[in-house]
Amino acid sequence: MSIQESVRIVPKGDIALIELDLVGEKVNKLSTPVMFRLQEIITEIAQGTYKAAVIISRKPSIFIAGADIEEIRSMKKVEDYKSAVNKAHAIFNLIEDMTIPVIAAVNGACMGGGCELILACDYRIATDETSTKIGLPEVKLGIIPGFGGCVRLPRTIGYQAALDIIVQGKAVDSRKAEKLGLVDKVVSSQILEEKALEMAREAATTGKRVKRFQPHGLMAVAMELAPARAFVIGKWKDGTKKQTGGHYPAPLKAIDVIEKTYGMGNREKALSIELDGFCEVAVTDVSKNLINVFYLMESVKKKTGVQGEVKARPVSSLAVLGAGTMGGGVAYVAADKGIDVRLKDINNQAIAIGLKHARDLWDKLVKKRKITSYEFQRKMAKVSGGLDYAGFGQLDVVIEAIVEDMNVKKKVLAETEKHVKKDCVIATNTSSLSVNEMAKAMANPSNFVGMHFFNPVHKMPLVEVIRGEKSSDEAVATIFELSKKMGKLPVVVKDGPGFLVNRILVPYLIEAAWLLEDGMSIETVDRRFKKEFGMPMGPYTLMDEIGIDVCIKVSKIFHESLGSRIMIPPTMKKLSQSGRLGKKNRKGFYLYDEKGKQLEIDTTVYADLGLPTPSDKLSADETIRRGIFPMINEAALSLIEERIVETPDEVDLAMITGTGFPPFRGGLLRYADTVGANAICDELEVLAGKYGERFKPCTPLKNMAKTDRRFY
């Protein structure tokens, strides 16, 4: 990489235009060479006769993506972090201390270190492009803004607005940034350079900006007073502790740094406090795990889903068989990315439900000002509905999302195949039925794959792309790329009971039912898995969300396929007769209001299931081990022996994005490595002795324990 060409000065009369355009890279990032080159540039400008400077990117839709995360990932010691961050502070201080005004001209993503760079500038101008987002997402990597963001952002927009961006890891669009005072002006991208130079010439006359954040209005002024500030920051601390469960130290450390440095007159001291806070969280296992998760998700962008040079077929139009809420969700994520979608069902009522679901999701974005009314209409125009196969002959893909019944699916798939072109890829959205079995109904099974979406479709990032025995590489690659185009994170899995995620998750849910049998309470078990272990919700809440009837149906299928590893307790059988479906009929382990909000535990469940009053006699450790270790056991079998997926990365990515397995633990198998195969096998043997064969460690896990091997 030619670093001189990547960061360069282009004179515009008496204005220095600093162009960022990293050679050989799709994005600009603040690596060590780039930072040193920037220092050279700033020094050169300071020694020249320029009257102002403008920093602009030549990358489309990218200003600066942030610091070089690979460099952060490679550091291990506090001394390494301190050295790197101190150098960054020195460079940004140079920009802030220049005797001439410096203007940041922002188009596209301006994140992390990029945001901290523009905060060191005097003025900021941004484009109205939807790609223009400014933010500090560092807490999502387990760190805090360390290049001055915790100090400069509150001084620019006030501590309350800064807390919202920094603690939540948020990014704001240019209009919101302008309202906050983060940018001074918003313009069209076509005139960004022209208006930035105009702003620079004006600033050359008026001089550098002297004032920082100034509260507007009596209320804003009052909130700046120490008692009010202490109250607000206290509320942020309480809310953050509740939200993170204490598992993520970075957001609380960011609050602490802002509290200590806000209003401090000594910049060096304030930056030193920020530096100490950054180093404190950067060396934690939580940060390392979150950075690994970031790389897991980024790696999907470079994959095709198959080996070799096979290319995916382009997809500009698709149909969804089976409208309703699921079909509407699939239509929404496809049309939102510019794909024409046809919803087909057997009655107009189902199509109306699907269209309404998609419309409601876009309508929420309009109300939140994420999209305009014009964009709403344009997106809705991408979705149509009908009862017949009109237009199917021109479609690139058909996604079947009808009832989970093998015979019905086979019939519909065989019929659909007669109405599509020869190279149309047909995908089934199934959570438990065999793709290989369905393929028997197809005249051309090479064009048939599975495409398992997780509910709710618009929120859950994972798609399992299920490769059948006869699925072609081209068909798999097409659905893999389509999933990415829809904004999803696909993982290719082999056909098998429950594929990957449900295969691993079901033992966890069934064990929750066994814990009820053993005298544990709903409240205690849910609390232990959510608050103490870090799952997004407890197993009973999750079963209510999925639907208790669905959990029971899938458990029976798994028992038939996996035998003694999936033993269904009497409680599950009684649940199936109790009329409790969970959230969808407002009565499960919990009660729900008409809008689906969880109200309270339904304590009558114990009597209905013939269970005594809970005693909660099991320790938290045993409770958690009984739920988590069987998942590790099943994952080892799926990965090592059955090759449902090829790598531990794919297991961890799928479990994090499909079930919300705690990202701070790095994923199921990274967590397993921290415990050790020996310890897991020993504990499973103990549990098998106490509770039965379902806990027996599988052969692959036992072999790992014998040779002291790890998944990674």
What layout of secondary structure does this protein have?
Elements: H1 3-6, E1 7-12, E2 15-20, E3 29-30, H2 32-46, E4 52-57, E5 62-64, E6 66-67, H3 69-74, H4 78-97, E7 102-106, E8 109-111, H5 113-119, E9 123-127, E10 133-135, H6 149-157, H7 159-168, E11 171-173, H8 174-180, E12 185-187, H9 192-206, H10 218-223, H11 226-244, H12 249-261, H13 267-282, H14 285-301, E13 317-321, H15 324-335, E14 340-344, H16 348-367, H17 373-380, E15 383-386, E16 397-400, H18 406-417, E17 425-428, H19 435-439, E18 448-453, E19 462-467, H20 473-485, E20 489-494, H21 501-517, H22 522-533, H23 539-546, H24 548-562, H25 570-576, E21 590-592, E22 598-601, H26 605-608, H27 620-641, H28 648-659, H29 668-675, H30 677-691, H31 699-707
Parallel strand pairs: 2-4, 3-6, 4-7, 5-8, 7-9, 8-10, 9-12, 13-14, 13-16, 14-15, 16-17, 17-18, 19-20
Antiparallel strand pairs: 1-2, 10-11, 18-19, 21-22
Number of helices, counting only DSSP H or I runs of 4 residues or more = 31
CATH domain topology of the largest domain = 2-enoyl-CoA Hydratase, Chain A, domain 1
Shape: globular
CATH homologous superfamily annotation of the largest domain: 2-enoyl-CoA Hydratase, Chain A, domain 1
**Oligomeric description of these chains:** single chain
CATH architecture of the largest domain: Alpha-Beta Complex
Please identify the top-level CATH class of the largest domain: Alpha Beta
**Major sheet characteristics:** 8 strands, mixed
Secondary structure: helix percent: 40-55%
